[in-house]
Design goal:
This protein has 11 helices and 8 strands. It has helices spanning about 5-15, 25, 30-40, 90-110, 175-180, 180-200, 205-215, 220-225, 230-280, 285-290, 295-305, and strands at about 20, 55, 65, 70-75, 75-85, 125-130, 140-145, 160-165. Strands 2-4-5-6-8-7 form a 6-stranded mixed β-sheet, with helices on one face. It has a two-stranded parallel sheet with strand order 1-3. The radius of gyration is 28 Å and the shape is flat. The two termini are about 50 Å apart.
């Protein structure tokens, strides 16, 4: 069994593979907290959580876990996603997601695309809350059109999707954090775990101590006190998923490097073989000089249209 297969076998035994929420989604699953986040981001003052209509697509899964929240309020259709890794493809994912949201919306409203009247649609609003380890700006906008291989500069593409990425790591987006206490608490809790990990704690210990510390500080106190075990399991799954992705990424890089070296060496052999053959050496002599198989040298000569000289 290869190291990769052995690791994955261990990983699958250890982790419950049923789809689960990520902590961010769990923290903002209450309409009251989600409304507070919406108000903070948009500088609005909605007070009634019941004005917020949840329309999250429950069958949309990213890396075995749900990290999305979507809802309608006023005249806007909002998609909020959480990311712990920087992802340039969020606009493309948003496009797919919104397509399903709008399809569900017009079906529920009883609209028909074959009608002649324009269908009124809520305005899309796409936010990505980023708290990965890479240093990123407070706010970044990603565009679907940046992924198009080529399009005339004077013409706008007919299809666009914009994702606004907000950095919610501890110490960032301070104005937003002051407006939304729950978001600040989430950032502080994650930072607490990272600090314990940096001190050398194993993951289980880091999570346990971070929960105790945050309870003492009144950070996510209601969630942590009422759902301690669930939060622990949730975080262990998240970090296990991240560890698996990092492991596979390193495996891919190592394999790519090995393959690249092999291909580079083969290319160098080929170029050297052609050079020796063009110096009026025979197949046998070239094979001896470069310590290569004669049949391989002959194939190179034929592929490059060089005269086959068995002897000089």
């Amino acid at each position: 069994m290869t190291n990769q297969k052995r690791y994955l076998s261990h990983f699958h035994r250890r982790v419950n593979r049923r789809y689960k929420d990520r902590l961010f989604r769990f923290v903002f699953s209450d309409k009251k907290d989600l409304l507070a986040l919406y108000n903070a981001v948009n500088n609005t003052a909605y007070e009634n959580p019941e004005e917020l209509e949840i329309n999250t697509l429950e069958d949309v899964i990213y890396l075995s876990m749900k990290n999305d929240l979507s809802f309608i309020i006023g005249s806007t259709m909002n998609l909020y996603e959480h990311q712990s890794t920087w992802n340039q493809n969020m606009p493309l994912r948003g496009l797919f997601y919104f397509a399903e949201l709008y399809q569900d919306y017009i079906n529920k409203k009883g609209y028909r695309l074959t009608g002649t009247n324009r269908i009124p649609l809520p305005t899309p609003n796409y936010l990505v809350f980023y708290n990965g380890l890479e240093e990123e700006a407070e706010r970044t906008e990603l565009f679907l059109s940046d992924s198009y291989e080529a399009h005339p500069a004077e013409k706008k593409p007919c299809l666009e999707c914009r994702a606004a990425v907000l950095n919610i790591n501890s110490g960032h987006s301070q104005k937003l954090m002051k407006k939304c206490r729950r978001l600040w608490e989430y950032a502080e809790f994650i930072q607490e775990i990272r600090q314990h990990l940096q001190k050398g704690c194993v993951l289980e210990e880091a999570v346990e101590q971070s929960i105790d510390t945050c309870l003492e500080r009144g950070i996510l106190a209601d969630i942590l006190s009422n759902n301690r075990t669930e939060v622990q399991k949730m975080l262990l799954r998240e970090y296990d998923e991240r560890a698996e992705r990092e492991y596979l990424r390193k495996e891919a890089i190592e394999l790519g490097l090995k393959q690249g070296l092999k291909e580079g060496f083969a290319q160098a052999q080929c170029e050297m073989t052609v050079r020796v053959l063009k110096s009026n050496h025979s197949i046998t002599q070239t094979a001896e000089i470069l310590q290569l198989n004669e049949d391989w040298v002959r194939e190179i000569a034929e592929a490059h249209g060089l005269p086959i000289k068995e002897k000089t």
